[in-house]
Amino acid sequence: MNKYEQLLIQANENLRATDNKRDQVYYFFIVILGLYLAFYRNIEGVDKSLVIGSNVFLIFLGTMIIFVIINYQMWHVIYVNTAIVIQKIINRDIKGPIDDSILNELVSETKDFEYEFFARHDTEFFIYNSFLIVNFMLIGLLIYQTVGSDITHTWWIIFIIVYICSFNLICNKKLKKAKKDFLKMAWILKL
To answer: Which of 2, 72, 117, 181 has its CA 20 to 30 A from that of 125?
Structure first.
């Protein structure tokens, strides 16, 4: 087994570990949200400030988890693309050290680097957006508990669009940065 086959194995192991950590974050939030929803009726009869405080905590936690998911998705893209570049090195049977010009050539001819977040229809995209929607629903519940039903449907629609689009733009920007700075971030290729 040569150096590049070992690097390919390492890239795949890091990809698997990153996806496993991302899934653990998903499960953690789902368990916390499940506990909250299971005891929501019991909490509702208690002091209103406790209900609002628990909603604020879940919104904060959900927002932090969304940013963690964005970060894990960025590393997922980096490890997948690293594995693709290493596979190209192995297929071309390149011997010796690989300089930046060869890496730039391999990266430029790799179609998977054309990553458009809004064009994605995979599991990560749907899970990420489901977390956005769940977190938005918690925000909506908090607004309903504090303001009541006085807010109009038009404002809800505007708020939904701004909320989901802003997080999707943040995610898209982070993934485009990963694409742009790929050779700096793909540390496995430097081994």
So the answer is: 181
Instruction: Find all residues with CB under 8 Å of 143, minimum gap 6, and list them.
Output: 151
- Which DSSP string corresponds to 13-46? HHHHHHHHHHHHHHHHHHHHHHHHHHTHHHHHTS
CA distance linking residue 141 with residue 37, whole number of Å: 12
Which among 83, 108, 89, 76 is positioned nearest to 178, based on CA atoms? 76
The whole-number average pLDDT for the span 48-67 is 83
For the cut 80, the answer to whether the pLDDT of residue 54 exceeds it is yes
Distance of CA 18 to the CA centre of its chain: 11
pTM beyond 0.85: the answer is: no
Residue in 47, 50, 57, 72 with CA at minimum distance from that of residue 135? 57
Round to whole Å and give the CA distance between 60 and 78. 28
For residue 81, which of 121, 105, 108, 110 has the smallest C-alpha distance? 110
Do residues 20 and 64 touch, judged by C-beta distance below 8 A?
A: no
Enumerate residues 6+ apart whose C-beta is below 8 A from 100: 183
Structure tokens at 182: 């790929």
